[in-house]
Design a protein that fits this description.
Length: 218
């Protein structure tokens, strides 16, 4: 089985995930876990994430970590228990190379542990975690890190639309920014589903119309 395994029917993915713990089969476990989570099959989703993690797959560890800390109520455990399990998995996921793991670990560290939060958000951002870059922007190189948060956002990410909108608004406040660059950021927010981004991008286009263009449109 190859990386293309994630395109296989669910029964084939289940067979692969229940097979030997290796990097190829862990991809099937990840796909199953994400699919089951969307269907609110939380226990099964967590089970398959754990199976994927057995091969050392950091992405599977991240998924399990996120389930523990966000779906603890459905798992029948306390928030503190969920947080404890989540942080252990997120830390291991980060150590094995997952940017999302680093970002989740940083997010759930105590509020006053700024040093380790920034350290792990930076690691997450370096590994192309949009969340890591977004939070890192609160501490250093705001525009640059917001730009990365926007760039690394997934194409269907509601969270990403917020990142891109924040980036565009930060550019608006920067006197060095060009209208073209600002417009591109609002366009990305629009593409990711933020309607205000669409409105702002359209307004900027309107402002940039040349007199010649206006005559042609009349």
């Amino acid at each position: 089985m190859t990386a293309n395994a994630t395109a296989l029917p669910l029964e084939d993915l289940k067979t692969a995930c229940n097979g030997p713990a290796n990097s190829a089969n862990s991809l099937a476990c990840i796909k199953l876990s994400r699919t089951l989570l969307k269907a609110n099959r939380v226990f099964l989703a967590l089970s398959y994430a754990h199976k994927g993690a057995k091969s050392g797959n950091p992405d599977a560890m991240f998924i399990a970590a996120k389930i523990y800390v966000t779906r603890w109520k459905e798992l029948g455990i306390t928030y503190q228990e969920g947080l404890k399990y989540s942080q252990a998995l997120a830390k291991e996921s980060c150590e094995k190379g997952s940017g999302e793991g680093c970002s989740l670990y940083a997010y759930n560290l105590p509020a006053d542990d700024t040093k380790n939060k920034v350290k792990n958000w930076k690691l997450g951002c370096e590994r192309k975690s949009a969340v890591g870059c977004f939070f890192l922007a609160n501490y250093q190189d705001r525009i640059e890190n917001l730009s990365k948060a926007c760039e690394y956002s997934e194409s269907d990410s509601t969270l990403g639309s917020n990142f891109c909108l924040d980036y565009a608004e930060a550019l608006e406040k920067d006197p060095k920014s060009t209208k073209t660059r600002i417009q591109e950021a609002f366009d990305k927010a629009c593409t990711l589903g933020y309607r205000y981004g669409c409105y702002k991008a359209a307004s900027l286009r309107e402002e940039q119309r040349s007199p010649e263009t206006e005559l042609l449109l009349q």
